[in-house]
Amino acid sequence: MRAGIPGIASPHPIGLALPALYLEDDFVQRFTAALDEVIAPVLLTLDCLEAYLDPALAPDDFLDWLAGWIAAPVDEAWPAALRREVIGQAVELHRWRGTPQGVAAEIRLLAGGEVELTDSGGVSWSATPTGAPPADEPAQVRVRVRVADRSGVDQRRLREMVAQAVPAHVRTTVEVVEGS
After folding, report:
1. Is 114 in contact with 148 (CB distance < 8 Å)?
2. CA distance 141 to 100
3. Regarding the domain delimited by 98-180, which CATH topology (the fold level of the hierarchy) does it fall under?
4. CA distance 129 to 98
5. Are 64 and 74 in contact (CB under 8 A)?
6. In Å, what is the CA distance from 5 to each residue of 41, 44, 62, 65, 144?
7. pLDDT of 10 higher than 90
8. Residues whose CB is less than 8 angstroms from the CB of residue 70 and which lie 6 or more positions away in sequence, other chains included
9. What span, in angstroms and rounded, lies between the C-alpha atoms of 157 and 110?
10. Could you tell me the pLDDT band of residue 23, with boundaries at 50, 70 and 90?
């Protein structure tokens, strides 16, 4: 998290804003200079607040806080570029969360490549209260990801992400294959 930066200059020194009587007082100027050193990082952060809230511009050490603030599913071990992209697309990912389209979008961000997703479905309805219930087939999601190089994909993290994206009772199968 952000901390004080030693020796940073204040954009608005307090000592220069005092009445003329105090401009030549050495004690007052030293006292206000100490306050400037404490307040300078706050003022500079507030001056650049929009940059902190933009994932493309935010400092690397601020990305995890920003991701937590918007509930973006990021991992600290990911490179900063990937975390920035996930944070930037978080609204769209939340919009489609739990749907085949949303799961495929998250997988594309994490692993890249082409995603094939098969969902067993199992949704039915009846116009009458005595309609037959759906068959007792277990719900399942199968994911196949085609990438150029399998070694570049964190398969453990990919499986965890798919398991978190689907309901708890749904079985998941994740396969990463090489190919174009």
Report:
1. no
2. 9
3. GMP Synthetase; Chain A, domain 3 (3.30.300)
4. 28
5. yes
6. 7, 11, 15, 19, 48
7. no
8. 87, 90, 91
9. 9
10. very high
Give the Cα separation of 57 and 55 in Å (integer): 5
SS (H, E, C) the chain: CCCCCCCCCCCCCCHHHCCHHHHCCHHHHHHHHHHHHHHHHHHHHHHCHHHHHCCCCCCHHHHHHHHHHCCCCCCCCCCHHHHHHHHHCHHHHHHCCCCHHHHHHHHHHHHCCEEEEEECCCCCCCCCCCCCCCCCCCCEEEEEEEECCHHHCCHHHHHHHHHHHCCCCCEEEEEEEECC
Residue type, 86: V
Q: Where are the domains of the chain?
A: 98-180
Query: What is the pTM for the complete model shown?
Result: 0.66
Return the biggest CA–CA distance within the chain: 91
- Alpha carbon distance 179, 127 (integer Å): 46
Which burial class, exposed, middle or buried, applies to 68 when counting CB atoms under 10 A from its CB (0-12, 13-18, 19+)?
A: exposed
pLDDT digit string (tens) for 63-92?
989 999 998 878 888 889 989 999 999 989
- 172: which strand partners? 141
What is the side-by-side order of every strand in the sheet holding 171-178? 114-119, 140-147, 171-178
